[in-house]
Amino acid sequence: MNKIISFANQKGGVGKTTSAVNIAASLGVLGYKVLIVDLDPQGNATSGVGIAKKSLKSTSYELLTTEVPAADVILQTKYDNLSILPTTTTLARAEYELGDSKDGEYILKKKLDEVKANYDYIIIDCPPSLGMLTVNAMTASDGVVIPMQCEFFALEGLSQLMVTIGQIKAHYNKTLNVTGILVTMYNSRLLLSTQVIRELKKHYSDKLFETPISRNVKLSEAPGFGEPVYYFEKRSKGAAEYLNVAKELAERI
Length: 253
Ligand SMILES: Nc1ncnc2c1ncn2[C@@H]1O[C@H](COP(=O)(O)OP(=O)(O)OP(=O)(O)O)[C@@H](O)[C@H]1O
Ligand SMILES: [Mg+2]
Fold this sequence. Notes:
Bound molecules: adenosine-5'-triphosphate, magnesium ion
CATH topology: Rossmann fold
Strand content: 5-15%
Number of helices: 11
CATH superfamily: P-loop containing nucleotide triphosphate hydrolases
Largest sheet: 7 strands, mixed
CATH class: Alpha Beta
Order of helices and strands: EHEHHEEHHEHEHEHHHH
Strand order of the largest sheet: 3-4-2-5-1-6-7
Radius of gyration: 17 Å
Number of domains: 1
Helix content: 40-55%
């Protein structure tokens, strides 16, 4: 309990945000107290839980670059047990500012440590890069969840990501572990999908989540309404699968 988990993959559009938002919401439905930290300047997790970015007074940018405590930036969402530390595009500037500051890798960790005890799970949605924002996320985390699509190049990207995780573990965070690899946008009728899963099982059998997330149109529609899929369409395949993955996650960490 009281675990911090980064959702990371340097490849764009692989389902990081969709997984972070829906697993966080599912954990909330299961009764866990959850905080999502939006660490991607795109702010997709922020809008994905129905927060209007224009209304924000402070964001993860101020969190990382000023003295403001996390508790002053966190907002309640209208969903069960789910809070968010939101962001806007301004966060892009932090990438450079953190690089220039002494011990810039540890800033998020210091800020989140102050609120960690209030949540069963803190889920961090990372940007599609391995820059200072992702380094901050992993330095603050107990575990990393790697969402990935079933493509050939995904496997190459995965080995690169594993090297980066190893480096962060060596330099900044000895207790960091890979919590799991989550296959997203899965289509069992595609040969490539089954081949990639077979490769993943061969190399990372203990890490792969048992439930792959299928391609499901409700998952792509829900963010447009600012709703996690469980609240958008409870009976959808996407809602059921993310609930299963949330249960698996809670057993692992
Ligand atoms: N299982 C799915 N079925 C259908 N569409 C999906 C699924 N998962 C994600 N999508 C859609 O694919 C797109 C990319 O997903 P998402 O934004 O979660 O990826 P990401 O890795 O966070 O992207 P980025 O790297 O830009 O942050 C989005 O439009 C999302 O709605
Ligand atoms: Mg994203």
